[in-house]
Design brief:
The N terminus is likely disordered. Helix 3 packs parallel to helix 4. By secondary structure, this protein is α+β, with helices and mostly antiparallel strands. A hairpin with a 2-residue loop joins strand 7 and strand 8. A 6-stranded antiparallel barrel has the order 2-3-4-8-7-5. Helices cover 26% and strands 37% of the residues.
């Protein structure tokens, strides 16, 4: 699956793939009216081309994602190229049922703001990082960065994912990145998951539990962290 990395100074607000392709590319909305949008992109597009478009926060530089990340995201929108205007400008017709939602996002500047809340608490030697919401393209890096930041001062970190409602493939990558960052700082971390949470199927299919110690009971997770003290 092709990887896409956002470089410096792109100024793009969205990333997209052509239906059936695995090569993401960047685009930006120039205007939006009703179910039609005008975009700018360097990718050559043909009339009738169907696109999957994912809003992307402009400050997210150096983010790696795959076509599957776009397809998995709840923020994804579908559109079809109706015509090429000039140069790198195209007119799109938004063809999914959430076009009005996308229009509001474009006008308000709130593209790509998925929800993720992070809370930190301390009990004895264990620091608990509780995450609730979606671990997707727009949020996953925040969790990884906080894991690494906490581990500079706190050496036993329990990451509670019981409240996560969606876990995209890039979220898995960011969990591994955070876990490895904690290790580099000489600290220890484990994951806590509600066994009834649907994201358990993602953990099973990706074998993430073979990489990061994962528990379904808090007392077991805490015991694993303090073992050896």
């Amino acid at each position: 699956m092709a990887l896409l990395k956002q470089g410096e100074g792109t100024g793009q607000s969205c990333v997209a793939i052509i239906d059936g392709s695995d090569k993401p590319f960047f685009l930006s909305f120039a205007s939006f009216r009703g179910n039609s949008g005008r975009i700018k992109c360097l990718q050559r597009l043909q009339e009738g081309t169907r696109l999957h478009i994912l809003p992307l926060e402009s400050e997210e530089e150096g983010v790696e994602l795959t076509a599957q990340d776009i397809l998995d995201s709840r923020e994804k929108r579908e559109a079809q190229v109706t015509r090429r205007e000039s140069g790198a400008r195209y007119v799109l017709r938004i063809i999914d049922h959430q076009s009005s939602h996308l229009q509001k996002q474009v006008r308000s500047g709130s593209l790509g703001h998925s929800e993720l809340s992070l809370d930190v608490s301390h009990a004895g030697p264990v620091t608990t990082l509780t995450a609730e919401g979606e671990l997707v393209i727009n949020t996953a890096a925040r969790l990884a960065d906080l894991m690494k930041s906490l581990s500079r001062e706190h050496k036993k970190i329990l990451v509670d994912l019981s409240g996560i409602t969606m876990l995209a493939s890039i979220g898995i990558g960011m969990l591994v990145d955070g876990f490895q960052g904690v290790q580099k700082n000489g600290a220890k971390s484990v994951l806590l998951i509600d066994p009834t949470n649907p994201i358990m199927t993602v953990f099973g299919s990706t074998r993430l539990m073979d990489v990061i110690p994962t528990y379904t009971a808090r007392d077991e997770a805490v015991a694993a962290l303090i073992m050896g003290d």
